[in-house]
Amino acid sequence: MSYNNEYYVMTPNFEMEGFKVIPTESTALRRFHYREQIYGQPALRFNSKGNKIIEKTMPMLFCTPSVIISESLKEIIDDNIYGGSLYPAIINNEDDNYFLVNIYEELDCWDRSKSNYEQEDPDEDPHVIKYHLDVEVLDKIKESDRLIFKMGGDDLSPFIVHDKIKRKIENRVSYVNFFSLDTYQLGDEY
């Protein structure tokens, strides 16, 4: 059995513009890309890159490597995140119907014996060129609890989504790319 045909690397379409945001200084200091954001703290704040106007109908924004979603995608993503949760975000000091997909625990589920990777320093995470998912690791986790995750145990930690989530997102978001782990190699997103 292989899960590679069920999972996708999700990235922004780098050829398109208008959906990228940058954190305010206070938000950046909270290390939101990898630290758990605790409810009760202020919402995270982001501004559009280049002070461009963000359409209020934009369902997904990117502060790479993090993803921010609108209320319209919340029901698709909310209970399907491995090692994370949604956290309130405000865009351009006005739109508060957004949420950071706050993944603070990565899922190390790539099979070292079947994946292609480079590791020059044993104290550093390896640089994975081609992933092959580890069936034994994934079989121990209920599918609904691993529909969205960040890959662990490597230096880039790509955002991974299951086909069930991919199909729902691609029906609503035109400026996102999905690369099947079955065929994906590092660099395909560019």
Question: Key features?
Answer:
4 helices; single chain; 190 residues; alpha+beta; four-stranded antiparallel beta sheet; six-stranded mixed beta sheet; 12 strands
Task: Tell me what the structure shows.
- The protein is an alpha+beta fold.
- It has 2 domains: 7-12 and 106-180, no CATH class; 21-103, no CATH class.
- It is 13% helix and 31% strand.
- The chain contains 4 helices and 12 strands, in the order E-E-H-E-E-E-H-E-E-E-E-H-E-E-H-E.
- The strands form 3 sheets. The chain has a 6-stranded mixed beta sheet with strand order 2-3-6-7-5-4. Strands 10-11-1-12 form a 4-stranded antiparallel beta sheet. A two-stranded antiparallel ribbon has the order 8-9.
- The mean pLDDT is 92.
Number of strands: 12
* Largest sheet entry: 6 strands, mixed
Oligomer: single chain
Structural class: alpha+beta
Protein name: Immunity MXAN-0049 protein domain-containing protein
InterPro entries: Imm11
Domain Immunity MXAN-0049 protein: 37-171
Organism: Vibrio lentus
